[in-house]
Design goal:
This protein has three helices and eight strands. The protein is of the alpha+beta class. It has a single domain (about 5-140), classed as PH-domain like, CATH 2.30.29. A hairpin with a 4-residue loop joins strand 7 (about 105-115) and strand 8. About 35% of the residues are buried.
Length: about 140
């Protein structure tokens, strides 16, 4: 049975909170527990949610480098081209250097889909990495 977007969001956010060290006040990553809009107005204006679709989490480095996870899609902007893909039919994911061994503040992971599309997504390194990693993993498990 297909789960509702609200159910997917609630399950995913619960998983993120279980696996992420508090406090949740990270530099680039946010969880949208009760929020219906993204605080970064530029990013918010570029995202159009479908009926019932829910925001889950994001990593926003700047106005031109960000990823947003919803209950249905991953949406990424890297420079000039916004890329988005429905999360169903994911074949494989790569989370990059999320532990921050290279001393970078963020890393880029990749989602490989059955239609052979590869979608990048940004992950804040260190403790904040669990937000996007568990966000993507748990959302995919619910679909």
């Amino acid at each position: 049975m297909k789960k509702s977007d609200t159910s997917i969001k609630n399950i995913t956010i619960a998983s993120i909170k279980r696996h992420t060290m508090k406090p949740f006040d990270f530099k680039y990553s946010d969880i949208y527990e009760n929020d219906k809009t993204i605080l970064n107005e530029h990013v918010n204006n570029l995202i159009k949610l479908e009926d019932g679709e829910e925001l889950i989490c994001s990593t926003i480095i700047s106005d031109s480098i960000w990823s947003v996870l919803t209950s249905r899609r991953i949406i990424t902007l890297e420079g000039v081209g916004k890329i988005e893909h429905y999360l169903s039919k994911l074949k494989r994911l790569d989370a990059g250097d999320f532990k921050g061994y290279s001393k970078q503040e963020y890393t880029k992971g990749f989602l490989h889909f059955n239609d052979d599309k590869i979608i990048p997504y940004f992950i804040e390194t260190g403790k904040a990495s669990m937000i996007m990693i568990y966000g993507v993993n748990t959302t995919i498990q619910q679909l």
